[in-house]
Design goal:
Layout: E1 25-26, E2 37-40, H1 46-55, H2 57-64, H3 72-76, E3 89-96, E4 100-108, E5 116-124, H4 133-147, E6 152-158, H5 162-170, E7 174-178, E8 182-184, E9 187-189, E10 191-197, H6 201-204, H7 212-215, H8 231-241, H9 247-261, E11 263-264, H10 265-268, H11 277-283, E12 285-286, H12 288-301, E13 306-314, E14 322-332, E15 336-340, E16 352-354, E17 357-359, E18 370-376, H13 381-389, H14 393-397, H15 405-410
Parallel strand pairs: 5-6, 11-12
Antiparallel strand pairs: 1-2, 2-3, 3-4, 4-5, 6-10, 7-10, 8-9, 13-14, 13-18, 14-15, 16-17
Helix pairs in contact: 8-12, 9-12, 11-12
Keywords: Plasmid
InterPro entries: Acyl_CoA_acyltransferase, GNAT_dom, Papain-like_cys_pep_sf, Transglutaminase-like
Protein name: Slr8037 protein
Length: 416
């Protein structure tokens, strides 16, 4: 029953044979994409599920040292943890009308305790990985559970599946323990157990877009800081969008312009300290925070939802003192939220726009550094205040805004 201790995926690419589902039971949770449908699989769909398993041989080889058994899919519909019955088991499929079954989430309800669901397996066809499909599939599943009052989701990922563990951490899971090494087929692995507390979702609603149709409006608003209605911003937004037809290409044009055309205040030792988007554009300079304000304004002027993200970093890479670092997230078709950092490149920093792969300026490494997972509709107040309070770049350099991980957690920013 190794499937109740693992979940995740490696990036390899294989051809996709099409097999059609025999059942058409729509799963209770919605999938807001025209090209995909979530279905409830039954044992009649074993052949389709088996074909998906065989396209995901990399996962089975990594875990057990051998390809999936010919009866692996059939076993999914009867193999449950001790104390549970097949009625507690839910096998969801992600179905493409032309390509067939391209993904699955297999979970048991009320396990290992009431109001908690355990994900035994999540697989995405290799052809559809690294496109945001897996993230969106999981998030739709999570929204459905949260709406029913489920308070937690747990799962395990083997230690050697580093990309799988990183995926679950990006989804907001926190490691709660590790198991001793145990056998998985022909291999032995330490398993990392993760949990995500859904009871917190109602307090996170203002920070994250769990329902794109209803909550993205906050990421399009104009404010005193993100004054995208300013004529100069409107003119530049139209200029950058000219000749481009898709939000992805327009977003890339806006990102690259802010990254390259606006000079970082410290890199170029430039004044004044700017905070309002139109002022950043006027003076062509700004701290990372200010550059994120202008990028958000240009994106919103093009009706592309944009938010704000933060990290906590050591200023000298050795420890105290620490400072916040600001950048953006942009909401794109298919990919969903994608984080980008327009702070500006220099030796050792090479930020890019390449969804769904992130190319940020920094990666937290020290214990007191943090990557806050929330996507905010407005810049943090302490950031705006710091920018407004100091007139010169060097004055602000000695009073950069900071927030400890504990404080960030209490206000809903969270970190991983």
């Amino acid at each position: 029953m190794f499937r109740w201790f693992i979940a995740a995926i490696e990036d390899v690419y294989l051809p996709v044979p099409v097999m059609h589902l025999l059942t058409s039971n729509f799963a209770p949770f919605p999938w807001q994409h025209l090209d995909y449908t979530v279905v409830q699989l039954t044992k009649q769909d074993s052949n389709c599920l088996q074909a998906l398993f065989e396209r995901c041989t990399d996962f089975f080889n990594l875990t057990t040292g051998q390809p999936p058994a010919s009866t692996a899919a059939e076993a999914e519909f009867v193999d449950v943890p001790a104390g549970k019955t097949p009625e507690d088991l839910h096998v969801f499929g992600l179905h493409h009308p032309q390509k067939g079954l391209i993904g699955t989430i297999i979970a048991v309800q009320d396990y290992p305790e009431a109001a908690t669901w355990w994900i035994g397996t999540m697989l995405i066809d290799p052809v559809y990985r690294s496109q945001g499909v897996g993230s969106a599939f999981y998030q739709a599943f999570e929204r459905w559970l949260a709406a029913q009052g489920v308070t937690g989701i747990e799962l395990c990922a083997i230690a050697s599946n580093t990309s799988g563990r990183a995926f679950w951490q990006r989804m907001g899971f926190e490691e709660i323990r590790q198991t001793p090494s145990r056998s998985f087929g022909q291999r032995h692995h330490i398993a990392h157990v993760y949990r995500r507390c859904l009871i917190l979702l109602t307090r996170r609603a203002e920070f994250e877009s769990y329902d794109p149709l209803n909550s993205l409006n906050a990421y399009l608003c104009k404010t005193e800081v993100i004054n995208w209605q300013h004529p100069d911003i409107q003119a530049l937004a139209q200029q950058l969008a000219a000749g481009h037809e898709t939000p992805v290409v327009i977003a890339q044009a806006c990102f690259e312009w802010v990254r390259d055309a606006i000079r970082h205040s410290v890199d170029y030792q430039m004044n004044p300290v700017t905070w309002r988007a139109s002022d950043v554009l006027q003076h062509k300079t700004g701290y990372c925070f200010a550059k994120s304000h202008l990028l958000a304004a240009l994106l919103r002027a093009n009706q592309i939802p944009a938010g704000f993200c933060y990290q906590r970093l050591s200023i000298d890479d050795r420890g105290t003192p620490y400072s916040l670092h600001g950048f953006n997230a942009v909401y794109l078709p298919i990919t969903g939220w994608h984080r980008v950092d327009p702070r500006g490149n220099k030796p050792g920093i090479d930020t890019k726009f390449s969804p769904p792969i992130e190319h940020l300026a920094y990666q937290p490494k020290l214990d007191e550094e943090a990557d806050f997972s929330a996507i905010l509709a407005e810049p943090l107040a302490i950031v705006v205040t710091a920018l407004q309070t100091h007139a010169t770049w060097d004055a602000l350099l000695h009073h950069l805004p900071d927030m400890t991980p504990n404080t960030a957690t209490t206000i809903g920013l969270y970190c991983y």
